[in-house]
């Protein structure tokens, strides 16, 4: 699948009753870019992801991945187009082993359905072997080998966040949405994650949107940054430009006060 795909978000508005979670938000993410979205709690960052992957239906606006309009499609069809995400609160099945969690991530790539699997044994078996090999390459990339058989619920927190990234990568995404990949991590775990994300980018070249409160990670990894406040875009630019923008500083200080 083509991994270098541009994302276009235009005039996106999302309301929940009286709350405007996203107010006329627009931005482009270039093919292969690492684009960050920052903003205080409740700014609308996760809501952008939920609009991109079809979980929320925006009242207005258009989202395009390459030539394909995503808005109006179901979450399953958007996932099948190669949009994968990690969750702010882990999206792993705690009772399943790490490797089974990653295999589940590939479900939409499997051509052999369950019924066909029962009758066309040979083909299903060959497919299973190919999928295992692809999952193993994700496990190698993220150095998750020692935890292969560990139930996801038993993984140390930092490793579980990495496994969550692995689950998304196992989907062979064209667009990867990362919702606070280092939330709750200590400095060492954060530095490890930064290294893995850099490696993912170098090796897979996948287009990424990073939502993160950790400004150091954003400064280190992002090409460009969009800052939101109460659903309104307040700045776009390089990490240094956005971090020093007085309106952005004010939005964060206002939140802290
Ligand atoms: N399903 C929902 N129902 C009602 N309101 C919602 C829903 N999802 C989000 N909101 C509201 O939309 C606004 C934006 O929420 P969102 O979760 O996108 O913020 P966020 O920037 O991801 O915040 P955080 O940094 O805390 O994760 C908030 O006011 C939130 O309460
Ligand atoms: Mg959020």
Automatic annotation (TrEMBL):
Example of a GO MF term: ATP binding
Transmembrane segments: none
Cellular component aspect of the GO annotation: plasma membrane
Keyword tags: ATP-binding, Nucleotide-binding, Transport
Pfam families: ABC_tran (PF00005), BCA_ABC_TP_C (PF12399)
Protein name, entry field: Branched-chain amino acid transport system ATP-binding protein
Protein species of origin: Actinocrispum wychmicini
High-level lineage: Bacteria, Bacillati, Actinomycetota, Actinomycetes, Pseudonocardiales
All copies of domain ABC transporter, residue ranges: 7-255
